[in-house]
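Hi,

Apologies if this is the wrong queue. I'm a grad student, and the batch job for CCD97-like C-terminal domain-containing protein from Psilocybe cyanescens produced an output file that my downstream script rejects. I'm not sure whether the problem is my script or the file. Here is the sequence I used:
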Amino acid sequence: MSGPVFDKNPSLKYLGLPENFTPSPETDPITFLSQYLTRLPPHLLLHYSYITTPKQRSVITSIRNRRLQYVNKNPSELSFDAGRSTWPNLWQGRERRGAEEGAEERSWAQNDFLQGSKQHIGKLGNLLAEYEEEREAERVREIRRNNRDPAEDDFVPEEDSDSDDDAPTEPETPEQARASFERLLCENFMFGLLDNIDYDNVDWDETLDREDDREAEERWFDED
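Support response: The file is valid. Your script probably expects a header line. Output copied below for reference.
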């Protein structure tokens, strides 16, 4: 059984655009939404849930901003207890190193994200991978800082500074593990990688737009 048929005309009529307008909301919805998301009401935006995925929509700046605003509200579904219950695979897989996570996200961005469309991907694959690697490196540095003897601040070893990279790291405390997992949940949410969560409730919520985003959108349309 096929899903609902998407009709581009309501969006075009609402915006006062011709039926042959490009980018087409039907054939190139991501580009269209990148330009007109904040101009469309939620009841029309809901139709785009049928032809786009949360992953695909994560390239749209306004949607990323809405998701960030939502994350900053500390929603209960992204809390430690709820997240560990809803996404146990993420909790059990936290021990993966950043390089491994980066390789997976690079592959996803290059091969799956927007069906490999170079027009929208750009350097996203490399950025995601570098972000994962840096996140892991920062996590390790934070653990080292938290477990460092204050007396070490006045001590400068004579050997090469890279030698510290070979030193074994202390295991995470329960508090650090909890914080790391919550960050992982939020990051996966931002990139549209979580299942069993209502992205439509966030992506199409105009109340999550920041005031500076609205002003920038107004300037863009005035110039256009």
